[in-house]
Specification:
Blueprint lengths: L1 H40 L15 E4 L3 E2 L8 H16 L3 E2 L6 E17 L5 E16 L7 E12 L6 H25 L2
Parallel strand pairs: 1-3, 1-4, 2-4
Antiparallel strand pairs: 4-5, 5-6
Length: about 190
């Protein structure tokens, strides 16, 4: 009798394991189907977050420096950074003329202001603020066109001169943020 009980007990475990295997197969199939539907349903998006882009080319015109303080080379650096960001995050081709998407504008502000003071009323920290006015034209969809300013800043110790590595670090941080904001506004629609 003891042996029969164990046999029935083992058969119960075997049936339970078979049931679990069937459930696991069904769960795997369900997960695979869900993944296919998710990928298919999100086909107009890509990993950079852009929506469907109905364009093949883009053009970034030279951004003139119209700020009160002129830092040589800033306009060239910004223009290149914007071109590089769009090339790296889309499959659009860069062109010099007649682009489907056109970015143009000017640097309107390059300003240094004291931010915090020491006990003897001297600046302890300065802030570099940069504002760039951007005109975006989408020749395939005029509803996407806009003109608007984009700004960002970088704080640095007042004892440091805004030149060399301090200037390069400041511009890297400012341009990274501004170019990403322009990209989001024009292509990601965030």
């Amino acid at each position: 009798m003891n042996w029969v009980y164990q046999k029935g007990h083992c058969t119960g475990k075997l049936n339970n394991m078979t049931f679990k295997k069937n459930v696991m197969k069904k769960l795997k199939l369900f997960a695979a189907l869900a993944l296919v539907f998710m990928i298919n349903g999100c086909s107009i998006y890509n990993f950079t977050g852009t929506g469907k882009i109905d364009a093949e080319t883009f053009q970034v015109n030279y951004f003139q420096n119209n700020a009160d303080i002129i830092e040589p080379g800033v306009e060239r650096t910004f223009t290149q950074r914007l071109q590089e960001l769009i090339q790296n995050q889309t499959n659009l081709s860069l062109t010099n003329t007649d682009g489907d998407l056109v970015y143009e504008g000017e640097i309107t502000q390059f300003r240094i202001t004291p931010m915090t003071a020491t006990a003897d009323q001297r600046a302890a920290q300065n802030r570099l603020s940069v504002t760039i006015n951007v005109r975006f034209t989408n020749k395939k969809n005029e509803e996407d066109d806009f003109e608007k300013p984009f700004s960002f800043f970088y704080d640095y110790p007042a004892n440091d001169l805004l030149s060399g590595q301090v200037l390069n670090t400041a511009l890297d941080e400012i341009f990274e943020r501004i170019t990403q904001d322009i990209f989001n506004e024009s292509l990601a629609k965030w």
